[in-house]
Amino acid sequence: MQPELHLGPLTLQTFGIAFGLGFVAAGLVLARRFRELDRPPDWAYEMVFAALVGGLVGARLNYIFQNWDKVSNDLLGNLFSGSGLVWLGGVVGGAIGVLLWAWRKRWLSLTLLDTASIPLALGYAIGRIGCQLSGDGDYGKHTDLPWGMSYPHGTVPTTDTVHPTPVYETLAMGLVALLLWQLRDRLRPGLLFALWLVLSGLERLLVEFIRRNEPVALGLTTPQLISIGMMIVGGVWLARARTPRLAPARG
């Protein structure tokens, strides 16, 4: 692992590099997809920028909400601080940013959701590379498996041999992104996004069983509960699409 890269007087955080690369990769995939859809390729970078700004704002506000007692004495300083970003707030904020962008472009549609599903999976996969390189505590529980590893120099160090769960997630979501790309023109509008909901929810549900997060209800962690919700929505969506509509009654 390598939490930091030192280039002369400049110090770069590897998590930040992976974070940025995730958005760049998402933009490249979106640009190609927009060309296929006969939409302006520049929309890709507008959409990514909207997701980035919305995600940062959402993650920051979510952190402040969760840590109000700690930050209320310096609200303005904590609002613009570079630390303390919450994943869930980032997802919600990024989604709002993209929806506002699409509303402005008059492109609120199921095709928008399908188009977003592939870069969502790819960006997540690349982002987890940053978690692995920085050793930021997203690793799993103790394991005796031969590929278990320790993170003695991570930002959240451990000398115990643990599951390298960021690696698992990068591989899993990379495969999901590849599958969705192969299916991008083979499904009815909306179903690619529904499939992303099911697969990404399933991936996170399973990996949480070997991560260190504490359960909050029914023996499940917060990400697991969110994942189950995603899987239910996506599963119902897919099931309804497979159910033939009844013909209207005659007479």
Question: What can you tell me about this protein's structure?
Answer:
It is built from 9 helices and 4 strands; from the N terminus they run E-E-H-H-H-H-H-H-E-E-H-H-H. The chain has helices at 14-36, 43-66, 68-71, 75-79, 87-104, 110-134, 165-182, 191-207, 222-242, and strands at 4-7, 10-13, 149-151, 158-162. The strands form 2 sheets. It has a two-stranded antiparallel sheet. The protein has a two-stranded antiparallel ribbon with strand order 3-4. A hairpin with a 2-residue loop joins strand 1 and strand 2.
Main traits of this protein?
mainly alpha, two-stranded antiparallel ribbon, 251 residues, two-stranded antiparallel sheet
Strand adjacency order, main sheet: 1-2
Q: Which overall shape is indicated by the principal axes computed on the Cα atoms?
A: globular
Number of distinct helices: 9
Radius of gyration: 20 Å
Give the biggest sheet: 2 strands, antiparallel
First-to-last CA distance: 72 Å
Number of strands: 4
What share of the residues lie within helices?
55-70%
Structural class designation? mainly alpha
SS strand fraction: 5-15%
Can you tell me the residue ranges where pLDDT is under 50 for at least 5 consecutive residues?
A: 78-84
Average predicted confidence as pLDDT:
86
Order of helices and strands: EEHHHHHHEEHHH
